[in-house]
Amino acid sequence: MSNQDVPLISVITPTHNRRSQVVRAVKSVLAQTLTRFEHIVVDDGSTDGTAAALAEIRDPRLIYVGAKWRGANAARNAGIERARAPVVTFLDSDDVYLPDRLERTLARFDQNPSLEVLISSFLSLKGSRSTKCINRETFLDKSELQRALVSQTIFIAGSAITATHESLLAIGGYDSDITRMQDLDLLLRFARRGGAQLSEDIDWKKYNSENSISRRRDGYVAAYANLIDKHPYIADRYPDVPPFMIARQIIADTLKGRLQQAFSGYLANRSSNALGYSLPQLLRGYVVGRRWRRDCYDEFRAKYGARAV
């Protein structure tokens, strides 16, 4: 195999029963200005004709992997294992790249050979509403990255993440036990290893699908408890953050009349070994944690300019 046959960057897309969306995603990759790539689509047991639809796209750079992978994270890891390029990036099956995404991304790693993680900016689309989620240009060291992730003061999403293949393997890829907040979990594990470059370039579009797990109103507290269980140092180093995150979800559900979800969230919190906060602890955490997060947001906005418009 000649050097020209080796891809410069690998794109990994997990999918399940999103035939039309994944075809749209694949076409956005095949239309890239950079041509030396491979696009690995890992199909997690689709039954809607995804395999047949992708088979009609005859391009050797598109690699279809079909099986039952026990969820999107296992599918992503299957793609990581098969990736041949030194740089790996991701594209959720309901998202699309802008035409210069891969060219701009690879240029970042060429300019900085020591770079391990890049987090780009994106356009979030919800119905007729369009929001620019912009992370201003800067490099966050490992402690800054951790604090930004814990306080949720930067924009992250699966399709915004690019990393070296070596570093992804070093941290073990995605955690298959995490079904929600998997991108936050991945980046928190990267933050133990080093920092990350934030890019202000909007290079992809995020479509908020109706069947997306992140859009579900229920299950947030249980998912957050699972995250804290995986990263117990968060509660130790930032004691007011977990109760704030839980309280704000419960309060939001209550104010919007979702009383059953609010009560379920509280019960999920109480039954969790990682959380278990009482009502007074949640109220205190909401007040103190909200203030701490606001201070972090103001600091990052003043220093780095992260914002949504």
Properties at a glance:
2 domains; 11 strands; eleven-stranded mixed sheet; Spore Coat Polysaccharide Biosynthesis Protein SpsA, Chain A; 44% helix
Brief rundown of the structure:
By secondary structure, the chain is α/β, with parallel strands linked by helices. 44% of the residues lie in helices and 21% in strands. Helix 1 links the parallel strand 1 and strand 2.
CATH T-level topology of the largest domain? Spore Coat Polysaccharide Biosynthesis Protein SpsA, Chain A
How many H/I helical runs?
Answer: 12
Round the mean pLDDT to the nearest integer and report it. Answer: 92
Strand/helix succession: EHEHEHEEHEEEHEHHEHHHHHE
What is the overall silhouette? Answer: globular
Poorly predicted sequence stretches spanning 5 or more consecutive residues:
none
Helix share, percent: 40-55%
* Global structural class: alpha/beta
Give the total of beta strands: 11
Kindly estimate the percentage of residues that lie in beta strands according to DSSP.
15-25%
Straight-line N-to-C gap = 47 Å
Number of domains: 2
| CATH architecture group name of the largest domain | Alpha-Beta Complex
CATH superfamily of the largest domain: Spore Coat Polysaccharide Biosynthesis Protein SpsA, Chain A
Largest sheet: 11 strands, mixed
